[in-house]
Amino acid sequence: MTNALPLSSALKRYFGFDSFKGNQQVIIENLLAGHDTFVLMPTGGGKSLCYQLPAMMMEGTAIVVSPLIALMKNQVDAMRGFCESDCVAHFLNSSLNRAAVEQVKADVVSGKTKLLYVAPESLTKEDNIEFLKQVKISFYAIDEAHCISEWGHDFRPEYRRIRPIVNEIGARPIIALTAAATPKVQHDIQKNLGMNDASLFKSSFNRTNLFYEVRPKTKNIDRDIIRFISQRRGKSGIIYCLSRKKVEELAEFLKVNNIPALPYHAGMDSATRSANQDAFLLEKVDVIVATIAFGMGIDKPDVRYVIHYDMPKSLEGYYQETGRAGRDGGEGHCLTFYAYKDLQKMEKFMQGKPVNEQEIGKQLLLETASYAESSVCRRKSILHYFGEEYAEENCGNCDNCRDTKKKVEAKEDLLAVLDTITALKEKFKADYIIDVLRGHANAKIRDYGHDELEVFGSCQGSDPRHLNAVLRQAILAGYVERDIENYGLLRVSDEGKAFMKKPKSFKIVEDNEFDEEEEEEVKSGSGCAADPQLYAILVALRKKTAAKLDLPPFVIFQEPSLEAMATTYPVTLEELQNIPGVGAGKAKRYGEEFLKVIKTYVEDNEIERPEDLRVRKVPMPGNLKISIIKSIDRKIDLREVASFNGLEFSQLLDNIEAIVNAGNKVNIKYFIDEVLDPDEEEEICDYFRESESDDINEAFADLCPDYSEDEIRLVRIKFLSEYGH
């Protein structure tokens, strides 16, 4: 039985709203009529109301299956805020003690509870099943329904058991809701829940207020993040990291730099997690640094930016996480840092999983890489991924559309791509097709005899990035289709076949460059300094000082230190000591002349110094620093020092380098004498004396295979300790 109150009156009475958003009204009417309902609606579109209002209007209790304890708590708190009694909504999960569980069950049986949130694991417990058989259930709501699909970004095996449990408890209408589902995921959800005949309500995935930006991930990422947030002081933001360790480190780094921030991840105890979440919702802190667990269903409308420190594992995850920005329709900046090597690491983490799972994971990572590297409108790429076409050429609200590139004609290349896909009988993926086009006769191509095909080498000499751009934009244009069911095999569409018969102009923009060489180039130089003119002056002064002392320039100050000086304009010895890689010893020894130059430059150019932009490093724990220094003073084997402190040897070297960069002298010659002959040590020393850079990667490339990276680092530490302080 349904509350006789008209829908618009019920909306006003229970939630205080005067009108529905988007498809909300027709979705609710469909559920009230007793029909299975599938809702695809972007984050911020108002999915929760689609089951909360019907629950209030219908007789009985709605069972809401939700994946996260934090999400349940947030939504129960929100519902209680709309009603006079706390009994209206409860959750049933592992966070409750026995007495609390009994109270929840008593309220449900009494009919006071209209919404009962349960985790899928709780739903499958035998005692809960027996309890729910006694309850009058209005309907089942499956929130975050993408968790059902192996192709979904938060796949949860427990979700696949929901349908059999529902049948056992007692069938009632089902409403499944998700903010991110490709056609493949959508099909999986409907099939698994046994709701193929459900009414589908799909809202546009286009969030016009969100600005999408992808930047190369360089060693200066922390400074970039500080600068980005400092320009948005007082605004709320979320930073997503893939690892718990990075979440903790980055939150601490932000706090040291006077940015109110807290961490959030599944490894924290639930009380701390809840407290940190509430602090963010209540605006006691500006920034939450989190793993992807944070934010599902968190109803904070004014998140002004979402930063991805690491590229997500899938575009669905990316879309949902970025969708937490600007839910009120206001500003929402979505900044992502991309390095292909991060995706390679994620692929390695999949090893040991079932082959099917690995293949799915690889395909999702390829889609993510394609999105990041493409120069096509970000909005167009995202919407295409979710099966929605975007007709505009330029959305005006993403980095690719803001910085448009010149288009190049690629008609002949597209013809070659279509011919090759056809010749290979539509049974191969993009990377294989590009190898055939470029004439790369690897073992697999030779085994299949594809090096004998007429199309083999038809684009010999072409840049693989160009061919990737042709393929990606051919897919967006509808000439090529990716067969999702078969892990991304490419086939020619009907439009593609028509193009082959009657070719026409096909212009593309080249992909963005994210090569390792490109990243290295961005990592250093005046491009990372806020004031290139001052940076150039400081570089010249460093060169002059180094020549006077007969030392390599990097011994005086390393490039990141000069970049920081040209960003924050230190004018006192104390300020100079806060510059990364300087420290008290180096500041006193070399700093006076540099401070004089900076001070004169600031006065001559009437510069207002952005002291709040000074990036401060998180200090090494004092006990660890003291332990390492004391161990070196006592000439203990560094391998034993690493083991004693629970560090890998490379991590110990990181810490010793940090100690030296902070202005402390260390004498590790006793250990170097154990691992290197005097002549070998001298050869590495000579390299750094004559080199203009102290970059370890460059040194290793020049000195391997004669010396290991650790050996080179050891001598570099000794060299900098002797000459840099």
List the helices and strands and how they pair.
Layout: H1 7-15, H2 24-32, E1 37-40, H3 49-57, E2 61-65, H4 69-82, E3 89-92, H5 98-109, E4 115-118, H6 120-123, H7 126-132, E5 137-142, H8 162-169, E6 174-178, H9 183-192, E7 199-202, E8 210-216, H10 221-230, E9 236-240, H11 244-256, E10 261-264, H12 270-281, E11 287-290, E12 303-308, H13 315-322, E13 332-338, H14 340-349, H15 355-373, H16 378-385, H17 399-402, E14 408-409, H18 411-423, H19 430-438, H20 443-448, H21 464-477, E15 480-483, E16 489-492, H22 494-501, E17 507-508, H23 516-523, H24 532-549, H25 553-556, H26 559-568, H27 573-577, H28 583-604, H29 622-633, H30 638-644, H31 649-661, H32 669-675, H33 678-690, H34 696-703, H35 709-723
Helix pairs in contact: 2-3, 14-15, 18-19, 19-21, 24-26, 24-28, 31-35, 33-35
Please state the overall shape, judged from the principal axes of the Cα atoms: globular
Rounded to an integer in angstroms, the radius of gyration calculated over CA atoms is 30 Å
Strand order of the largest sheet: 3-4-2-5-6-1-7
Percent helix range: 40-55%
Number of alpha- plus pi-helical segments = 35
CATH superfamily of the largest domain: P-loop containing nucleotide triphosphate hydrolases
Amount of beta strand:
5-15%
Q: Main β-sheet: number of strands, strand sense, barrel status?
A: 7 strands, parallel
What's the number of structural domains?
5
Identify the CATH architecture of the largest domain: 3-Layer(aba) Sandwich
Structural class: alpha/beta
Indicate the CATH class of the largest domain. Answer: Alpha Beta
Name the poorly predicted regions.
Answer: 516-527
Averaged pLDDT, please? 84
Number of strands: 17
